[in-house]
Amino acid sequence: MSEMKVDIAIIAAVGQNGVIGIENRLPWSLPEDLKNFKALTMGSPMLMGRKTFESLPGLLPGRPHWVVTRNPEWQAVGARAFLSVEAALAAAAEANLEKLFIIGGGEIYTRSLPLVNTLYLTEVSLNPKGDAYFPAFDRSGWQEVARVPQLSAKGVEFSYVEYRRI
């Protein structure tokens, strides 16, 4: 029986200065990006850190919530807990998932970046203050396969960019 490879993707909105969050929330309001996030992730499990899970307004419909936590006792209704990124990825492979989205935060992005095949980045033309950052990565190992420039209703320029590992 041939083993199906899971497409492991990171999805993140990133400021020009690498900021992705401040005080456990997004540093900007881009409803257009939230709609794009929903469209891309719908139907696929989302892997996130506990703080990211707790920052959500509630369970996001139509997508399993997988949470990485160091606390083996942690549990939440509607979430599946894992003690490591690697354990979650092993469960994804075992379940023959087609796709798994890693949705943050900074520490989870850093730990999973070497393991992913695809990056869906919303590159935001702002330099906000923040306390959570997307990890720096060697862009020579990635090919940009799509870039769609956008202008938010509030006048913020951003682009949806898809990268594939070379």
Automatic annotation (TrEMBL):
It comes from the Bacteria. It is an enzyme of class 1 (oxidoreductase). InterPro entries: DHFR, DHFR-like_dom_sf, DHFR_CS, DHFR_dom. Residues 7-165 form the DHFR domain. The keyword Oxidoreductase applies. GO terms for molecular function: dihydrofolate reductase activity. It holds the Pfam family DHFR_1. Its EC number is 1.5.1.3. Keywords: NADP, One-carbon metabolism, Oxidoreductase. It catalyses: (6S)-5,6,7,8-tetrahydrofolate + NADP(+) = 7,8-dihydrofolate + NADPH + H(+). Pathway: Cofactor biosynthesis; tetrahydrofolate biosynthesis; 5,6,7,8-tetrahydrofolate from 7,8-dihydrofolate: step 1/1. Key enzyme in folate metabolism. Catalyzes an essential reaction for de novo glycine and purine synthesis, and for DNA precursor synthesis. Belongs to the dihydrofolate reductase family. This is Dihydrofolate reductase. The lineage of its organism: Bacteria, Pseudomonadati, Pseudomonadota, Betaproteobacteria, Neisseriales.
